[in-house]
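Example record

The entry below shows one chain as it appears in the dataset: sequence first, then structure tokens.
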Amino acid sequence: MLAYQLEHIFSYRAQLSAPQVLGAMPGGVRVNFPIVGGEVTGPRLKASVQAVGADFFNLRTDGVGILDVRACLKTHDGALIDVAYQGVGDLGEHGYEQFLAGELPPVLQLRTAPRMSCAHPDYLWVNRLQCMAVGYIDMQTVEVFYDVYALR
């Protein structure tokens, strides 16, 4: 087995706007959650989540939601960091039908794999990371919360 470590680099909260439900498509129900802001705090990074990007969520007929997220962070000293990640949120075996009936869970656990890119010399280290994140979305407040770890 290969040796590895997880290093907590930051936690974040992002506020999303009301979901834009595109409807049932051949691959499932597509829902877009535009990002309107948020904050990043942690031992390696302090930033704000910019009001750009979105969480593009596709809920498959088996109840598994596939996330495809693009976001931008602005560090406390002005650097811009592009963030992209994919992941899953499992609504359960009957999650698809429940979603179509308007029955959403109050909280949905999320597991993702973020990658970051930055041109600023003080943040070139983020370009070398593969991260994993564990979190959830609060469906009442439409806020997402994550703890992000670098896989070393």
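Notes for this example: Helices lie at 95-100. The mean pLDDT is 96.
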